[in-house]
């Protein structure tokens, strides 16, 4: 399989998986980058996977479906233009000979889903892969537009529990700004410092920082580390004396800190 991040808008990626003949895309907010890639690589589009209803993830779905006849999959609980195969946790999608499991990961939106495949061979290496939309970013997580801190924490726990070598295909190139925040939260995290350096190098060469890996995210992403004493203490110190003590409360403080971080 070939795994390609097609840039769209200012910082979106439309992920494409293809076998040289058939392709699937994830969250095509814009149809044009997908049409261009299909033509350039002489591919047929067989499936469109949608993680949540936001326009930067769905804007190109109708044009692509109408032009190619691709099957469209999306979250059961969100308003996505029909026709659509509606999915929730426990459901599966098979395409390109791959089997994807659907995970419910609410928080960014109420019905957000992710697509996990236990084994995909890319560049000769077999590893799991997850298309996680705007739930998990490298070094960060999505904003809580329709969910609570407790829901997002549970969703991120679910993703963090995937195998360490899972390729993490997020929908935005937010890594460098996320890592600046992560350094403020955990200034003594050496793995974070060296990861930041590696990502700065990739961006300087105009390469994506993604896909990331779950084991990398466990080591550097403050939103997967909010129960660690150093991270929780930093979030509480930032918020002052009135800081809540439970896990979801600390996670919420961390998310609010990031919302105002420059
Ligand atoms: Zn979104
Ligand atoms: Fe988005």
Describe the structure.
- The protein has 262 residues and is α/β, with parallel strands linked by helices.
- The protein has a single domain, classed as 4-Layer Sandwich (Metallo-beta-lactamase, Chain A), CATH 3.60.15.10.
- It is built from 9 helices and 14 strands.
- It has helices at 32-41, 55-58, 61-68, 149-160, 175-185, 190-204, 214-220, 229-239, 247-259, and strands spanning 2-8, 12-18, 22-26, 44-49, 71-75, 85-87, 92-95, 98-104, 113-122, 125-133, 136-137, 140-141, 167-170, 212-213.
- Helix 5 packs antiparallel against helix 6.
- The termini are far apart.
- The model has no long low-confidence stretch (mean pLDDT 97).
- The structure holds zinc ion (ZN) and fe (iii) ion.
Features:
262 residues, alpha/beta, six-stranded mixed sheet, 9 helices, 35% helix, globular, binds zinc ion, binds fe (iii) ion
Please give the share of residues in helix: 25-40%
- Separation, N- and C-terminal Cα atoms: 39 Å
CATH homology superfamily name: Ribonuclease Z/Hydroxyacylglutathione hydrolase-like
Largest sheet: 6 strands, mixed
Q: Helix- and strand-based class?
A: alpha/beta
């Amino acid at each position: 399989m070939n795994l390609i991040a097609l840039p769209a808008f200012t910082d979106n990626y439309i992920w494409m998986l293809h076998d040289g003949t058939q392709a699937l895309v994830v969250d095509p907010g814009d149809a044009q980058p997908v049409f261009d890639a299909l033509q350039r690589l002489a591919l047929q589009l067989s499936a469109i996977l949608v993680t949540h209803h936001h326009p930067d993830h769905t804007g190109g779905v109708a044009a692509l479906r109408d032009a190619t006849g691709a099957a469209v999959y999306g979250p059961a609980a969100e308003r996505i233009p029909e026709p659509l195969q509606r999915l929730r946790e426990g459901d599966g999608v098979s395409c390109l000979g791959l089997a994807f499991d659907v995970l419910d990961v609410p928080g960014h939106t109420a019905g957000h889903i992710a697509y996990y495949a236990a084994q995909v061979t890319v560049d000769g290496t077999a590893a799991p892969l997850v298309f996680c939309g705007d739930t998990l970013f490298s070094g960060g997580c999505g904003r809580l537009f329709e969910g609570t801190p407790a829901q997002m924490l549970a969703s991120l726990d679910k993703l963090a529990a995937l195998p360490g070598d899972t390729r993490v295909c997020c929908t935005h190139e937010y890594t460098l700004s996320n890592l600046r925040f992560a350094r403020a939260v955990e200034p003594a995290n050496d793995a974070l410092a060296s990861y930041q350096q590696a990502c700065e190098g990739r961006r300087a060469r105009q390469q994506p920082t993604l896909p990331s890996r779950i084991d990398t995210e466990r080591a550097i992403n403050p939103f997967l580390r909010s129960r660690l004493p150093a991270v929780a203490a930093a979030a509480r110190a930032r918020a002052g004396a009135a800081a809540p003590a439970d896990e979801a409360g600390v996670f919420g403080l961390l998310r609010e800190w990031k919302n105002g971080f420059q």
